[in-house]
């Protein structure tokens, strides 16, 4: 009886952990790329569409644009690489706050290359950059955006110990 119950609980946990990890990673990606996407809804559509290989809907003001990634399903690392390279493509065009159409254009340019079996490093090299450098710069920028920790207060002076008498 005990082993049967243990197996049921262990099985349930084994299935729940990957689902929870995926949800956490996906929400982290959405948070990370919300600024580039222009809104929370765009970021969710972008990450979900890229991860699942389904239609992405981006809205900018009154304009809505849609596309389906030519790469099919992608993992979190590939989604991050694609968005990082699309961001760099936009930056090279001096676009810092892209419209939905501009983001679609930059991203599909990267995804089309990936769909033609080019590696992420190869795509980055074709843009004149190194993926590792982009990743490091993104990590630095992310750390700089986080709120700085307040300084630790100074420790108060310890009162002197009372002299112990007679033992």
Radius of gyration in whole Å, from Cα?
24 Å
Mean pLDDT over all positions? 82
Give the total of beta strands. 2
Uncertain stretches: 16-23
Number of helices: 6
Physical arrangement of strands within the biggest beta sheet: 1-2
Question: Given the helix and strand composition, which structural class is it?
Answer: mainly alpha
Characterize the main sheet: 2 strands, antiparallel
> Portion of residues in helices?
55-70%
As a percent range, the share of strand residues is: 5-15%
Q: Measure the end-to-end span.
A: 60 Å
Describe the structure.
By secondary structure, this protein is mostly helical. It has 6 helices and 2 strands; from the N terminus they run ααββαααα. The chain has helices spanning 2-37, 40-52, 76-92, 100-115, 120-126, 131-145; strands at 56-60, 63-67. A two-stranded antiparallel sheet has the order 1-2. Strand 1 and strand 2 form a beta hairpin. Helix 1 packs parallel to helix 3 (76-92) and helix 3 (76-92) crosses helix 4 (100-115). The chain is elongated, with a radius of gyration of 24 Å. The protein starts with a helix and ends in a 22-residue tail after the last helix. Mean pLDDT is 82; it is low at 16-23.
């Amino acid at each position: 009886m005990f082993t049967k119950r243990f197996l049921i609980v262990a099985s349930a946990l084994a299935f729940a952990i990957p689902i929870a990890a995926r949800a956490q990673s996906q929400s982290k990606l959405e948070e990370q790329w919300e600024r580039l996407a222009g809104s929370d809804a765009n970021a969710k559509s972008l990450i979900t569409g890229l991860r699942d290989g389904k239609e992405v809907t981006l809205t900018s003001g009154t304009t809505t644009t849609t596309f389906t990634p030519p790469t099919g399903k992608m993992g979190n690392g590939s989604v991050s690489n694609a968005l990082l390279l699309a961001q760099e493509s936009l930056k090279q065009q001096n676009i810092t706050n892209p419209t939905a159409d501009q983001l679609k254009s930059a991203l599909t340019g990267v995804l089309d290359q990936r769909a033609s079996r080019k590696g992420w490093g190869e795509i980055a090299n074709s843009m004149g950059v190194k993926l590792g450098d982009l990743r490091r710069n993104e990590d630095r920028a992310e750390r700089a955006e986080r709120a700085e920790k307040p300084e630790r207060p100074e420790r108060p002076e310890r009162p002197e110990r009372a002299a112990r008498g007679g033992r």
